[in-house]
Amino acid sequence: MDVGSKSENILEIKNLNVSYGDKKILNNISLNIKKNTITSIVGPSGCGKSTLLKSINAMLKEEEDAKVEGDILFNGININNMDLDEVRKNIGIVFQSPAPFPLSIIKNMTYALKYHGIKDKNTLEKKVVDTLEICGLYDEVQSDLNKSALRLSGGQQQRLCIARALTINPKVLLLDEPCSALDVKNTEKIENLLMRLSSEYTIVIVTHNLSQAKKISKYCAFMMEGEIIEYGEDIFSNPLDNRTLEYLRGC
Length: 251
Ligand SMILES: Nc1ncnc2c1ncn2[C@@H]1O[C@H](COP(=O)(O)OP(=O)(O)OP(=O)(O)O)[C@@H](O)[C@H]1O
Hints:
6-stranded mixed beta sheet, Phosphate ABC transporter ATP-binding protein, PhoT family, 9 helices, ATP-binding, ABC_transporter-like_CS, 26% strand, ATP binding, alpha/beta
């Protein structure tokens, strides 16, 4: 199912099939992700949401028994034909549990920049401050930049992980249940941050929180048993498939 014009699609997933050994996980997924929007992916536990995110980030290349077939195009280029570093530079990922490196806040923030060859101290410093500010974290951490990131609260750690992913200017940010370990207040901060970021970044978020998906995403994909059952702008208000209706009931 496609929505909108093709040029708006930053990601085009075509006939994606993923298996682990003999077990089929994703079954012929085709999905277009619109640029500078938030797309949520919802569905019952085990339906393959995380596997889909990992496929987009080319992470399954590192999993020995994963077999991937089909195409994922980033800005029209097949990610299989891109250098892995280039894929990861353009498509960042943030996981469920806040996972800063066990290093200082500043080292967390400069890690990827240094990996990509940026050494100039002023450039690094400016990028760190600017990105922490964008993520609403600078005021909270400015006097602790050299202290361990593990001293931060869970919510701050997750915002740091988002900020860390943004330092190298990805075009797409994938988030796998980023708020599931957070309380309501911290969840709200992340939701507001993602809504702010969506004018500049394309965001794909996996969430079990249907109110969150409804609140922050423009497009939503409902998955079941490795398939996209329904995808579009108004699946909350007007679900077309009974399975979607059943899953979203009460939301
Ligand atoms: N490395 C792996 N090896 C074998 N099977 C795996 C592996 N990773 C995931 N799976 C299986 O793939 C299926 C889909 O898992 P996935 O994590 O993508 O689902 P999910 O929809 O994100 O689930 P949840 O909502 O519970 O996080 C599950 O049956 C899981 O056991």
